[in-house]
Amino acid sequence: MLTIDINILLFNNFEPLDVFGPMEVFLHAHGFRVTLFTLDESQKIKSYNQIHLDVKSVSDINKKGVLLIPGGPATRTLVTDTDFLKNLESLAVEATYCLTVCTGSALLAATHFMNHKKATSNKLAFNWVKSINTQVNWIKNARWIIDDHLYSSSGVSAGIDMSLAFLSNIVNEDFADNIAKQIEYIRVKNNDNDSFA
Question: Which positions of the chain have pLDDT values less than 50?
Answer without folding.
Answer: none
